[in-house]
Amino acid sequence: MDKKIIALCAMLCAHSVFGAGFQVLEQGAANLGTALAGATANAAGDASAAFWNPSAAAFQDMKAGETKMDSAMTFVIPSFEFRNTDSSPNLGTNEGGNAGEVAYVPNFYLIHKLSEELYVTMSGTSTYGLETDYANGWIGRYHALNSDLMTLDFNPSIVYKPLDWLSFSAGGSLQWMHAQLTQATPIYVGGTYITDALVDLTGSSWSGGANVGMTIEYAENGRIGFGWRSEVSHSLSGNQKVNGSITNPINADITLPQTFNVGFYQRLWGPLHRFAVMADYAWTGWSSFDILDIKNGNTGATVGSPVNENWKNVSRVALGFNYNPAFSKNFVFRWGAAWDESPIRSANFRSARIPCTDRLWLSCGLGYRTADINIDIGYTYIYFLDDPEIHTAGGPTNSLNGYFVGHAHVVSIQAGIYF
Fold this sequence. Notes:
The protein is mostly beta strands and about 425 residues long. Helix content is about 5%, strand content about 55%.
């Protein structure tokens, strides 16, 4: 039964349709409307800079002593279903139904201007997460049933603006991670299959990281921003339960990747002055998630053998546009698209927890702003660029072979206030 602990790796390497790996990228409704293009340069001019690149907060129209605060709620509605080809042995025809679970992602951002040169920022976000749920009795039940991974990240930063056109930022984050999965395991008596038992694995951890940023205003209404976030190393500890009873403690180490973003924003001139163009490039170091070694919490011995995840570093590229209509200076319309690369190298490394493949983001949004408030709505359709195959050898089912079909809708609502 201890061998079931190895399934913890599947939960931790399972990933959400949010972004590459199990990264949660939906940070700010205004940013979502442009597929995150310009987020690192704070193209939206809101407090979400506190997460993406705090140094960009220094280019908002604020007076010393003023505060800008934004709060967003994002709804992720994924749909993906397994299609069996030749899984062996045959454990029925139940393919698990729609395993996508609706996710609710709240975010909070704050900027406070201390003086002409100094700002402080704070973000409260979920940076990594997933949730999936297959139907009981499905053909892959010995690989996965329910998976739930959540992080909470609190990130204060300080911003220094030594020149009118240049700013720097540095900060630290305190992060909590909680993981839980369930799956079935067969029970045999005298070599005869009797029934399934429910295995429940949980673990949690506190850890911390750092972030730095820089923003350059190279021209009127034009700037470029850079943001880097460090790796965050977690040591999860928890318990294994079988049919509700604790059997033994478990622990596992996981290193969340470092990220680097560069973003561009430029308001256009002349006949095109109502338009702005923005772009972002993001690099995520998922190669940090290479081997996962699961250990028995009592003995310290490796359970089974280390799992070779073999994830790769990935990129994301986004392009977006803003349009300020002639009928009102308070409104802005947004469009954007992005290509988001998967860290999974092949079908042999894909987990049943959530399918992974390269994705295309198609986004739009609407914003309304006065001197004191802003309200933003963003929508993104995430399209799987292929039907990702899975070939998982070993385990009670011997193999899980097939492919997934799916997509996702993402809707975000945000409100902000100056005071």
